[in-house]
Amino acid sequence: MTKFKGYVLQHGTSPVNGSPFVVIMTMGSSNTKTGDMCQLWILHENINPVDAVNLGMDDTVCGDCPHRKQSDGSRSCYVNVGQAPNAVWKSYKRGIYGKLSDLNPSDIQGRKIRYGAYGDPAMISPSLITLLNEHAAGHTGYTHQWRQPWAQWCKGVFQASCDSFADYLDASAHGWKTFAVVAKGEQSFSGKLCPATAANSKAQCITCSLCDGAKTDIFVEAHGSGAKYVTN
Fold first, then answer.
1. How far apart, in whole angstroms, are the C-alpha atoms of residue 45 and residue 60?
2. In what order do the strands lie in the sheet with 218-221?
3. Alpha-carbon distances, residue 194 vs 46, 72, 159 (angstroms)
4. Which long-range contacts (CB under 8 A, 24 or more apart) does 176-179 make?
């Protein structure tokens, strides 16, 4: 059987705006923070990620995430959509990825999955997540959609992304494990510091897996090009 560098796992319709999206899993990563995890990307089907951000159509895959581009042009999301997300989208349009039916369970056995390398994994079909997790060795994932009725299946599967103490209290009261982004140098309002971001740490997401929606609350200092816009 042909081994592909990635697989198209789902074509879906966004519960936010009805636009089409695609879910793609790439099988390797050189990301030093996460380690070599399988990466799931949720991308607008017909608009490249850069244009989607600039047109405000990234809500198709990001929902009401507060780190999206704002009316004043600021964008606190750490993901540079012009890099990996755009490359994955272009590869998809070239037709180089396999289909879900091409994916063998052995391809992900012993592997860990990062849900939402870009895009919110709450958009993905719950049955697809269940299927993948039956064979994978573990996963990480975060959702800003934890208040939405259609995203309640994510509780216990993904961390609730929180951007304030009020968010943390609300999510915790409703049974979620949380992931908080705090401004650089500010006091944390929840949980443990992400081990992969601690000074002099050699930890990676692939060896940690605390952010699986079920274990504990985690926080991280704002990072990436948009960190200066995080002011909580």
1. 10
2. 98-99, 6-13, 20-26, 38-44, 112-118, 138-143, 159-162, 178-182, 218-221, 192-193
3. 35, 30, 13
4. 176/146, 176/213, 177/213, 177/214, 177/215, 177/216, 177/217, 178/217, 178/218, 179/142, 179/211, 179/217, 179/218, 179/219, 179/220
Domain boundaries along the sequence of the chain: 6-229
Token representation of residue 28: 């390797």
Residues of the chain below pLDDT 70? 1, 185-186, 222-232
Integer Cα distance of 58 and 61 in angstroms: 6
For residue 195, the one-letter residue type is P
154 SS3 class: helix
Task: Scan for tokens 């899993």, then name that residue.
Answer: 25
d(CA 3, CA 152): 34
Tens digit of each residue's pLDDT (9 = 90 or more) over 123-132:
999 999 999 9
% of the chain surpassing 90 pLDDT: 81
How far, in Å, CA of 186 to CA of 56, rounded? 30
pLDDT value of position 222: 65
If one counts every other C-beta atom within 10 angstroms of the C-beta of residue 53, the result is 21
Give SS3 for 132. Answer: helix
Could you tell me which residues come within 8 angstroms of residue 95 by beta carbon, excluding any fewer than 6 positions away?
A: none
pLDDT at res. 185: 66
